[in-house]
Design a protein that fits this description.
Length: about 200
């Protein structure tokens, strides 16, 4: 089968081996791996992971949510990526950071690295279903949940963390509502301390 015919039949940019077999080679399943291997060798398609492919000219930009969901689902973007997206932390991120209800996993792909951290099901909320981007308040809570063990409740630490600079962008009432989903007094105490620091520096709204 010619690539253009296969692509027309597939009708999407990312597909699995099973989908390729079902759509294009239903009567000859033995040939699917050979054909996919040849297209990959010719750089017509790229492998995102074992059994998952993307057409090489299918731009990753603008399709990050589709790629992330195809690699590992359910998931949503949070932590450093979301905090950087909202300007709550100044640093740019070079790895897609997500949370999932499944086991922690990391994927290195030709279109970027995707890091998934496991979160409890009760706390798997607070994100846009289409873009998979967490709300800024949820991203902040997730960040404190995963990295809070290294935080210190002191003005000097908050100043060095550079989180305080983005506190004006956060609704702390919503932050505390999301924090309760984790059922962690330590997490709530840490966030409360951070909110007091932010308020004392006239950045809390």
């Amino acid at each position: 089968m010619k690539l253009k015919d296969f692509r027309k039949k597939m009708g999407k940019g990312i597909f699995s081996t099973a989908e390729a077999q079902l759509v294009a080679f239903p009567e000859n399943p033995a040939i699917v791996n050979l054909q996919l291997h040849q297209w990959k060798k010719n750089n017509d398609i790229i492998a995102l992971k074992r059994g998952l492919f993307m057409f090489s000219d299918y731009s990753a930009s603008g399709h990050e949510a589709e790629i992330a969901r195809s690699l590992y689902c359910p998931c949503y973007f949070s932590l450093q990526q979301a905090l950087s997206f909202y300007g709550i932390i100044p640093e740019a991120t070079f790895t897609h950071t997500l949370v999932t209800t499944k086991a922690t996993r990391h994927f290195k792909t030709p279109v970027g690295n995707f890091s998934y951290r496991k979160i409890k099901r009760e706390a798997f909320t607070g994100f846009d279903a289409k873009t998979l981007m967490a709300e800024k308040e949820k991203a902040l809570v997730d960040y404190f949940y995963f990295y809070g063990k290294d935080f210190k409740t002191s003005d000097s630490f908050w100043e060095e963390s550079r989180l305080e600079a983005g506190a004006t962008k956060v609704n702390f009432k919503k932050v505390f509502r999301y924090a309760k989903l984790f059922n962690s007094k330590k997490l709530e105490t840490l966030l409360h301390n951070f909110s007091l620091y932010a308020k004392s520096h006239q950045t809390y709204q």
